[in-house]
Amino acid sequence: MTGPLTLGYSPCPNDTFIFYALVHGKINCDDIQFAPPVLEDVETLNSWALKGKLDITKLSCHALGHVLDEYCILSAGSALGRGCGPLLVSRENLELAALKKRRIAIPGRYTTAALLLQMLLPGCTELVEMRFDQIMPAILRGEVEAGVIIHESRFTYAQHNLICLQDLGEWWEKDSGLPIPLGAIAARRSLGGKSIGKIERAIRDSVDFAFADPDTCLGYIREHSQEMAQEVVQSHIGLYVNDFSRDLGVEGMAAIEQFLERGQAVGALPAGPANLRYA
């Protein structure tokens, strides 16, 4: 390993909350050095992961299934939980079966939201990719009949008189009995087990710092979420940062493994290495 490691995550409050301490020198990172982080929307990070651009990256669990030859999952920093999945929304109270022939907006080809929709409604062909914050406006303009919304849109769709046709996270939880695996942190396998272990500890310590002193992180969080109301920021963190963010544990790993297996079953993912972790 030579030089600082490149690191990417999203500007969403859950990620800036998690990584604040790590990128501001608040914790001991051992001998691991990080380059200044790049903050991009998750689908950009997904596309970069497919190209192997960063050493350590946030990515959707869907995208993870495409890059396991080069990357392994870290046990810290993930976004899993219950009651926090993407929502399928529309202006009209449409039957789910009718949506297979309708235009549905998705927040990117490699997002977890897109794969959950494919699992729920296999055979959907009219999927329209767009940035996550453009989906509700597109529905309201009638450009698409429905859309899968993520992030802060979960908290604001009702204000725009949109109807939730299906909570995809709720569907996943009932069907699998496991938490919904939304996003994960992955590192290059070529970094080696020793360095990967140090990176995991640094991220876990950063999560612990944020939990212990959340107010210290707020300035950084607000810097990257200026258009969000404070209550939306707090709801976002409360929904997506939890014990799974600190350590996936057995249940978290089981959720990701089953998610990837189901993705393979519907033909959306290639067969990957047996071990998601570094080996």
TrEMBL record:
Similarity comment: Belongs to the MqnA/MqnD family. MqnD subfamily.
Organism: Desulfopila aestuarii DSM 18488
Enzyme class name: lyase
Protein purpose: Catalyzes the conversion of cyclic dehypoxanthine futalosine (cyclic DHFL) into 1,4-dihydroxy-6-naphthoate, a step in the biosynthesis of menaquinone (MK, vitamin K2).
Highest taxon of the lineage: Bacteria
Record's protein name: 1,4-dihydroxy-6-naphtoate synthase
GO molecular function list: carbon-carbon lyase activity
The protein's annotated pathway: Quinol/quinone metabolism; menaquinone biosynthesis
Reactions mediated catalytically: cyclic dehypoxanthinylfutalosinate = 1,4-dihydroxy-6-naphthoate + dihydroxyacetone
EC number(s) given by UniProt: 4.1.99.29
GO terms under biological process: menaquinone biosynthetic process
SUPFAM superfamilies linked: Periplasmic binding protein-like II
Residue numbers annotated as active site: 151 (proton acceptor)
Chain positions recorded as substrate binding sites: 58-60, 112-113
Keywords: Lyase, Menaquinone biosynthesis
